[in-house]
Amino acid sequence: MQILKLRNGGILLYDKSFLPAELADRYWVELRDQTAWEQKPGIFGHMQPRLIASYGAAGISYRYSGSDYAALPWTSTLLEIKRRIEAVRGEYNYCLLNCYRSGKDSMGWHADDEPEMGDVIGSLSLGATRKFRIRHKTTRETQTFLAGHGTLIIMAGTMQQFWQHEVPKTKMLVGERINLTFRKIARNESAC
Ligand SMILES: O=C(O)CCC(=O)C(=O)O
Ligand SMILES: [Fe+2]
């Protein structure tokens, strides 16, 4: 496990081989086959270039790219993975899953800095290896990490305030990748 201290108090934990291969294989098959994958429109009405699904505690929903995603109830696979990541750092009540079907699927530069979002986000990758890049919002300093089968990346500290991250498209022939981001979302008490 590498612990990187980034500019302005960002913290990134990187463990390339967090999961043993057999366990990563089992989670990969279960999540690929048992997740309620959907493709959703993004902010400009185009479809997002990936499939998504969200799971979590009862009553948790998450606003993202202008849409509200009510969490489906936790599955035993997701609870097992959540416990493993919580043993490293964080405490989570929500998981957003992304499926990148090929090198054409991607996620653009963003920060998960919504006010209701906790500052520790645990991200597990399965399947094809893709680049996960981070960029400082003002200095534009950039670092690239390889997120492969069983890689854990935890973003913590002030990372979402000062840094953005992306999964760029690639022209290389790559297979499917599933990424899970575990988050802690504050309940919206004043929902009307
Ligand atoms: O796929 C990844 O590694 C990143 C996913 C991500 O940044 C997000 O879901 O907000
Ligand atoms: Fe993100």
Automatic annotation (TrEMBL):
GO terms for molecular function: dioxygenase activity. Residues 91-186 form the Fe2OG dioxygenase domain. InterPro entries: AlkB-like, AlkB-like_sf, ALKBH3, Oxoglu/Fe-dep_dioxygenase_dom. GO terms for biological process: DNA alkylation repair. Pfam families: 2OG-FeII_Oxy_2. This is 2OG-Fe(II) oxygenase superfamily protein. It comes from Aureliella helgolandensis.
